[in-house]
Write a structure and sequence with these properties.
Helix content is 38%, strand content 15%. It contains four helices and eight strands; from the N terminus they run ββββββααββαα. Strands 1, 2, 3 and 6 form a four-stranded antiparallel β-sheet that branches. The chain has a two-stranded antiparallel sheet with strand order 4-5. It is globular.
Length: 148
């Protein structure tokens, strides 16, 4: 979620989970944590799984035969998306699975943190219609500066 400067009247942009206004951007990385793709921005109230379905990420992963490691918000996404177990009283093997899952996922989280590290994306103060273009521009600049 990228924070934006909206007011209470802009309800679709308010995320109850994060407790602030923002835009939902889905990001795909390679196994080494390099950013590959960023989705068009959706209002912050959009659930992550809904955003993934709307952008066709799940269908593309299935067609390509690729697996994806995601957080608990993607529970019920189906085969290509691997998620950790929910709950407090997990069996030992489930806790081990969650630990391994977190070690794999942290690479993707670091990539998102790299994207959010750009000062421009820390709090967007522009029209919500321009945010997708800004994210694409930042991703292009990031890829240009990291590939030697």
């Amino acid at each position: 979620m990228l924070p934006i400067d909206r007011i209470a009247a802009d309800r679709p942009y308010y995320s109850g989970k994060k407790r602030h206004h923002g835009m939902n951007v889905q990001v795909l990385t390679d196994p080494f944590g390099r950013l590959l793709w960023a989705s068009p921005a959706l209002p912050g109230a959009t659930h992550d799984l809904t955003a993934a379905r709307e952008h066709g990420i799940l269908d593309a992963l299935t067609e390509a035969g690729l697996n994806c490691w995601a957080d608990k918000g993607y529970q019920g996404a189906g085969h290509p998306v691997r998620v950790p177990f929910k709950g407090r009283r997990l069996k030992r093997w489930q806790r081990r699975h969650n630990t391994t899952h977190a070690k794999i996922r942290c690479v993707g989280e670091q990539a998102m943190a790299t994207l959010k590290g750009w000062r421009l994306l820390r709090k967007l103060r522009c029209s919500t219609h321009r945010i997708t273009a800004i994210v694409k521009a930042v991703l292009t600049l990031h890829l240009a500066t990291t590939s030697g």
